[in-house]
Amino acid sequence: MATSHAAATSAKVERRESAELLNVLIVDDDRAARESCKQVAEDLGFVTHLVPDALAAYETLEQQPIDVVLLDLRSPDGGGLEVLREVKQRRPQAEVVLMTDFGTVQNAVQAMRFGAYDYLTKPFDRDELRLLLERVRSHVKILGENRMLRAKLRSKDGFANIVGASPQMEKLYRIVSKVAVSTHPVLILGESGTGKELVARAIHSSGPHRDKPFLPVDCGTLVPTLIESELFGHVKGAFTGATRSKQGLLELAQGGTVFLDEIGELPTDLQSKLLRALQEKEIRPVGGTRRIPIDARILAASNRDLETACETGTFRKDLYFRLNVVNLRIPPLRERKADIPLLVGRFLERMSGADGTARGNVERTISDNALQRLMGYEWPGNVRELENCLERACALSSGPIVHLGDLPTALQNAEMFMGPPQPALNGPQIVPIAEIEKQTILSTIRVLNGDKLEAARRLGIGKTTLYRKLKEYGTQF
Ligand SMILES: Nc1ncnc2c1ncn2[C@@H]1O[C@H](COP(=O)(O)OP(=O)(O)OP(=O)(O)O)[C@@H](O)[C@H]1O
Ligand SMILES: [Mg+2]
């Protein structure tokens, strides 16, 4: 049987040359089943490798750049779950789709918990397989792209500071890396403490003008006259106290970035002045008549819903449209709790002095139940609240381990408001299938910028089902 697999492999050898093509390994002891899967996969442009059993599958995994494995669960040599585990170990980046019959659906459900991508119940028709393969193909491509981007971005200073590997953050990295290379304005939205300034700095320091200045202006705390003179500059005697003339940040940036933090708080007359400056690419300092050309990139941030502010008339629509060429929304921490352990790790590392800062030389860790408590909390103040909470806990803890008792009282008393306990971190993470389904649906819609019909198509479900599920989740898009 190994020969037929070799023949099937070599028949497609020339197509594998292209980096665009994905390799699928079809593992089934039934020859006819293998062949019909092969046809569907090849029609979609996959390079196929056919094997009858687990041993041949392992061999192929060693030799071929397999991206997707179609695995018959009733593998003759050993439990399908064992094979899945082995496949995942040998090639963690390969996505496994299980083929199962009704009797083994239970196993398939369990297999999803061990990292299978999805399953098909036999008998399935060609369309079902086609839809699933299309879906897994876009998934694999997006993951591959992410890995590349992250590797690229990691090597740049700015991104090294952003922690997070949840699908939501992966999506954010993709957008950030795209906008970093352009000079369009970017509007960064997100609740307080989600990392808007961090992201703005990352965009600047990954862009072509990273050697130029990054100049933040806090529109939320400065009084209006000060913001105006900060941004546009003033001439001597423009107002009381203006004893000498001053250049505005928009001029000083000289090809760098001006970061307009809390832009939603900008008074309306300054909104008009800013809009004009952005349109005409020149400014007039307060009290002056001379026009000065500007060449600054504008990044703006707000924790307010600016669309509503436009409707209520407190924010100029035309300025909103100009700034919102790219809209980057940082999800609140409660929607990406998978990032909490990573963030905790980073903050503890920092507090241990392991990052080179002088914070003492104790290697700090956290107890499982304290971490579970952090995972269960809703974090209204987002990452900043988590960071403060850990700083405080480290200051209070008597040894290197942060215990439950070191956490702020609000968190210690939060138990009654929290959901079921989270699984221990060092055991396998058990996530209910319904949750996986929900996350898949929501992240697909997000990736497709809210296009629900396209999401339903790609997910291989009807649009009515999708709408019903969204209603169940109570999520607005
Ligand atoms: N993904 C992240 N990884 C590591 N640190 C983060 C992350 N997000 C936020 N932080 C840290 O949390 C703190 C708050 O971040 P930042 O000031 O960028 O938030 P913000 O959205 O601008 O908040 P605000 O609306 O209150 O101004 C900072 O110390 C930042 O370093
Ligand atoms: Mg901020």
Could you please describe the fold and organization of this structure?
This is Sigma-54-dependent Fis family transcriptional regulator. It holds the Pfam family AAA_lid_14. One of its GO terms (molecular function) is ATP binding. Keywords: ATP-binding, DNA-binding, Nucleotide-binding, Phosphoprotein, Transcription, Transcription regulation. It comes from Candidatus Korobacter versatilis. The chain is an alpha/beta fold. It has 4 domains: 144 residues, Response regulator (Rossmann fold, 3-Layer(aba) Sandwich); 169 residues, P-loop containing nucleotide triphosphate hydrolases (Rossmann fold, 3-Layer(aba) Sandwich), CATH 3.40.50.300; 84 residues, Helicase, Ruva Protein, domain 3 (Orthogonal Bundle); 41 residues, Homeodomain-like (Arc Repressor Mutant, subunit A), CATH 1.10.10.60. The chain has 21 helices and 16 strands. The strands form 5 sheets. Strands 2-1-3-4-5 form a 5-stranded parallel beta sheet, sandwiched between helices. Helix 2 crosses helix 6 and helix 3 packs parallel to helix 4. The N terminus is likely disordered. The protein binds adenosine-5'-triphosphate and magnesium ion. Magnesium ion binds next to helix 9. Adenosine-5'-triphosphate (ATP) binds next to helix 9, helix 15 and helix 17.
